[in-house]
Predict the structure.
Amino acid sequence: MRELVYYAAVTLDGYIAGPNGEFDAFLIEGDHMDGINDRFADTLPTVAAEALGIAQTREVFDTVLMGWNTYQVGGLPSPYSHLRQIVFSRTKTAEAENLEVTAEDPVEVVRRLKQEDGADIWLCGGGALAASLADEIDRLVLKRQPLLFGSGIPLFGERPYRPERFDIVETVAYESGVVFTELKRRREA
């Protein structure tokens, strides 16, 4: 069965963006980029991968989920046109290659997607969408950046207090100071 993977850059104090959606302080150069390009090439915008000559095989992810604010950040009508892109919005709409904008309940969409054949499903962001899908997330891949924002958009937005356990699968530290940590949800039997 396909898994929902929340793959995101996050600051040391738990933010995926600044208060107004800023993300330009995140490190986009350094040895950690090799980890992204080698293992997670499908998470690069299609035009960026093409410009860098990086193959996007859809072996890791073939679907990406985004809230409207995350979708509109790059200003591209189809930022990940090599993937099936599902954008959640109750008020906005857009049309582009491999893009679907829906007002459906994200939980119902994810449960349906998990039953389909294919590679894993990438939850790109944002924090409010991640909070609504928290119970459906099977794995986390966090690119912890050596930064403090002080305030901004939290990794999981607002959700009720309910501790949930994840186990570390792998941690890779780079000289840039970025640390990739992959965690898998602990499912109680």
User: Anything to note?
Assistant: The longest strand covers residues 4-11. The beta strands are 4-11, 15-17, 61-67, 84-88, 99-102, 120-125, 139-145, 153-154, 166-173, 179-185.
